[in-house]
Write a structure and sequence with these properties.
Layout (H helix, E strand, L loop, with lengths): L1 H20 L4 H28 L1 H5 L1 H31 L4
Length: 95
């Protein structure tokens, strides 16, 4: 477990160093967004396959979805409330 964490962190640091130090070609930079999207879609596909293979998740999908919906509503709601309060306290209601 710790080895994987260090591997992930190392890959992120390596990518950051290459991005910060290297002068990447304009063509590569333009294609990077498409590459990221493709990798993200592949990751989501693999996650879907893994979820689909787990019977416990499939059987409790409704309750998991309901919990996720409730958590999302509370997260968004309280975020809006806190931003409103901080706006009133710190900025006096000005934008």
């Amino acid at each position: 477990m710790t080895t994987r964490l260090f591997l992930y962190l190392g890959i992120i640091v390596l990518g950051g160093l290459i991005g910060a130090r290297a002068k990447l070609k304009e063509n590569f930079i333009k294609r990077l967004g498409s590459f990221q999207t493709a990798c993200l879609l592949f990751l989501l596909f693999i996650m879907g396959v893994k979820i689909g293979m787990d019977e416990k998740v499939i059987n409790s999908f409704l309750s998991i979805g309901l919990n996720a919906l409730i958590m999302s509503i509370f997260t968004v709601g309280f975020s809006i409330i806190f931003v409103y309060i901080i706006n009133k306290l710190c900025l006096g209601g000005k934008e």
